[in-house]
């Protein structure tokens, strides 16, 4: 399994249906053919420009920690995968 590449793709001001301004920091995540983006929304008044990326990285990390916790039950062992592969009904 190759390593994930994560980079900041965009930083932009967004207007929501609130009175507060928000900044959206969008991360691009890549691993081989897997490519997706994760937008992180922050209140502009809470952080200055130099802190935005650091705070957004922290939020991205927290999101993935929560995702890992919620999907932990889905984990298969190597033996589970072998067994599922051996009962596959697809023509070879």
Structure overview:
This protein is 32% helix and 33% strand. It has 92 residues and is α+β, with helices and mostly antiparallel strands. It has one domain (5-86). A hairpin with a 2-residue loop joins strand 2 and strand 3. The radius of gyration is 19 Å and the shape is elongated. The chain starts with a strand and ends in a 6-residue tail after the last helix. The model has no long low-confidence stretch (mean pLDDT 91).
Summarize the structure.
With 92 residues, this protein is an alpha+beta fold.
Strands, helices and their partners?
Layout: E1 5-14, E2 22-31, E3 34-43, H1 52-71, H2 78-86
Antiparallel strand pairs: 1-2, 2-3
Largest sheet: 3 strands, antiparallel
Structural class: alpha+beta
N-to-C order of helices and strands: EEEHH
| Radius of gyration, whole Å | 19 Å
| Percent in strands | 25-35%
**Chain-averaged pLDDT:** 91
Number of domains: 1
Helix percentage range: 25-40%
Overall spatial form: elongated
Helix segment count? 2
In angstroms, what separates the terminal alpha carbons? 24 Å
Strand arrangement, largest sheet? 1-2-3
Total E-strand runs: 3
Low-confidence stretches: none
